Amino acid sequence: MPTARQELILRKVVEGYMQTGAPVGSKLLAAETELGVGSSTIRSELSLLEEQGLLSHPHTSAGRVPTDAGYRFFVDRLLREQPGEEAPLSLQLMRREVDEAMRTTTEALSQVTDLVAIVTAPPVHTATIKHVEVLVLQPQVLMVVIITSTGGVSKRMFTFERPVDPGLAEWAGSYLNERLVGLGLGARMLRTRLSDPTLPATERAFLHELEPAFGKLAETAEQTLYVDGAARLVDEHRWGDLSELNALLDLLERRVTLLGELREALSARDVFVRIGRENQAPALRSLALVAASYGLPQRSLGAVSVIGPTRMDYPRAIASVREAAHVLSRFVEDVYEDA
To answer: What's this model's pTM, rounded to 2 decimal places?
Structure first.
């Protein structure tokens, strides 16, 4: 267990490394008047912190960098501090649609932290149909593409015994957009609007053939992720190793794995932080995850999170995630009261 002085030195190393990305040396630390000791004493304390596994000594550099355990020690102290850093979020979610509130929260969180922000939707059918395309790929092969309000894409291929009338396919696309856009993925009216008895027999039969494309949309609605900030990943100077960048890009492609990681945050009482190898998913083991649940007083409905390099600004990330979860909780309470 670090002494009080070692704890202070560790904090200075973590903060210095987060700011510059460069190993922190004893000379730099000796200039800190708060420490009140010379370089030789600091070098000795750095060696002891390294023996405890809290710092590492990369290459031949005289400086130290935090290990995952060092970050964990630093973060645990942050989580115990009250109230902590004030979150710079400015979210106004009153009188918004649920989908818009989720998207606004994700965008604001990513902008403030400069990290990838991910918000899981509550387990209600909040996503809606945004656009439908009915495409004739070959004379007898047709594809239905459904784009949701959360940016999700669902596609289904259909093969017919006879060539498809292009005019009928074009009509179907127009009709489905007119009747279904804005409708919730789990809405009961979805099936009704696909089987309108007032339509001519040919059109009604054609829509019946396409109905399976819409059959499983409600299932995907319960696993909706809102993601923002992926474009910031090209800022390579923030990554010590480009393999970390590739790992995060890979994780964003495999949303089921990401949902599994965030599910653990739903049972956490406060902000949930996993650093490096503390994460279960291999793609996250060189990254850090900061998450918090939001919802009703007796029920968690979703999670707010940021993901980035282990050298992230933890005070800002923790404060921002905590505030975003608080604002979303207030918002969904109002939604459920009005429902």
So the answer is: 0.67
